[in-house]
Records
---
Amino acid sequence: MSEEEIDRKITVIFATDVVGYSKHMEANESETVKNLRACEKLLREAFDKHKGRLFNTGGDSFLAEFPSAVSAVECAVEFQETIKERNASDETTVKLEFRIGINSGDVIKEKDNLLGDGVNIASRLESLADPGGICVSERVHEDIKNKPEINAAFQDEQLLKGLDKAIKVYSVFTQMDTTRKYFIK
């Protein structure tokens, strides 16, 4: 491929980040890093199980691509449930929580990395999720809404940084989420 050519594709992007990571590091760097490593191992195992590919990391953030929206959301739900179980253990010294954002869209392939709006939107959706939560774009919601094992509800319309128009944002709920008595598709 020549330098001028741009290699594009449509894919599903999964973005996650630790909630309050800087505060955890300030309180106890060593234990925070040890616990982050343990959580990263769980995350990588979930990616492998659901055919995700980790393509970028940055300290406490992780970006992966998936061939399907359903696979990405199932991975997110499983990972959040695993983290909740891990945090319930008395042996967990630093209870890290994650936010997850998932978007389906056009990206640019640059070596092993992915760039562009598809990635940026997933990252911005991640920042809208509650601690321990999952936010997905309308595109992803369209692909998962008829799957009975996935529960999602419309959250809000958001104007995300760098976009001209608002996008619909949906929250996905894990089986362990007791804050909702019912789910709206």
---
Amino acid sequence: MRMVGRKSGILLHISSLPCEFGIGDLGSCAYAFVDFLNETKQHYWQVLPVNPTDSLSQHSPYSSHSAFAGNVLFISPQLLSKDGFLTDQDVGEILSSSSRHIDYVTVVSYKSGLYDKAYNHFKNDPGAYKKSFNQFREENAFWLNDYALFVAIKKKFNEEIWTSWPEDFKKRGSDVLQKFTVEHEDEITKITFLQYLFFRQWEQLKAYCQSKNVSLIGDVAIYMHLDSVDVWTNPRNYQLDDNYCPTVVSGVPPDAFSDVGQRWGNPVYDWEELRREKFSWWIQRLELNFHLFDVVRIDHFRGMVQYWEIPENEQTAINGKWRDVPTVDFFRELEKYFARPLPIIAEDLGHITEDVHEVMRQFGFPGMKVLLFAFENNLIDHPYLPHNYDSYSVVYTGTHDNNTVLGWFENKASEHELNNMQTYLKKVVLSESVCWDLIRLAFSSPARLAIISMQDILGLGAEARMNTPATISGNWMWRLGKEMLSPKVIRELKAVTVDAHRA
């Protein structure tokens, strides 16, 4: 990743934008946020993965049934009306924009009805959009056709996992799939149309970001869910048995946070098969993400060097083992295709071995530093203390998996951590000042890029936390209020940015 000068930005997922339709989208609320970034001298907007989510995973953006498709819940009804796909009567009564949390059941029901109407308008009178729609289908056929087919078949079989489908569907029999495609042509076209709308609106937003000197940072989850179109269409890329069930699954070993480790349960890649195909699936995946975003963070980058392999029948991660990845071959193949330096940030949090750091140095990938972890031990050699950063780092107050700074300060931080923080900052830290104290610390650090979560800029507590790992409810729901982006917040953020020479 090429970083020029000292810059800063904000972490805020699309879903958290304060839109009028129950969930953040790619409409006017997104453009207003870009204006806010520009006015406060921020150069980066970081989001979480924008792939489809569902109720089975509590709408986690890190558990999707496609590595390529976009989340249609982010399609803006406002822009659909502007483009003639909906009328004002179609939109009807808007959902509340005042709630601080997303009601996914209501949002999905409301937007599904709107999308039915938008598709009917398009089908009956495509007008000037027919040509661009057909062009979109052609350019994205390598993933789009299978995705639309997968979603339609899942609907036919009541959303059951594809490994439980009838054999002809599970094994992608050409005759049965061709017959299904013909019989469900309208439904498949509608699924494709919604993807067209998502990517059309995203392209427009990205162009606006560029006009305001704002770069987009995206996020790529390293593993795919078993119940995904990617595993269904490319089972040879994963370590599966003859019934397409995983023989080994993903996770991380026991550590200071868990005596039994974490058993994530995703199928793990057959890296030798991927290498034989010159990593074509990964290249296609990253090519799409490099098109959507200016920079891409790879989640759990540790797994790109070595991954923890757990036998599928094990209930915990204890009895796993480390397996090597053909890392150098992989990234060299990427460099042949995309050229150096690759616009990648490595999520290198947790226990990271020297071989991972060596790969990051070799290929020029900046890593992450998180201030909420910096005060756990002594104040000399902890890698997340700013005096230990090299300039080629990205510093965060916290990530989407952390408590907010205020929530950490008031509820989770130990007395030892609080004493260390005050010693390091050389001041008494109060709840009303702790967020800006750590923001200033991040901004004044040697790291060329500082990213702050929107919740920390606003000084919000644990109620605004985005995700609590290892919990199954109450996550991915927080929403920003329009009134929160006040003139006072704008003045303070702009002043801190200018003072730290990040403007």
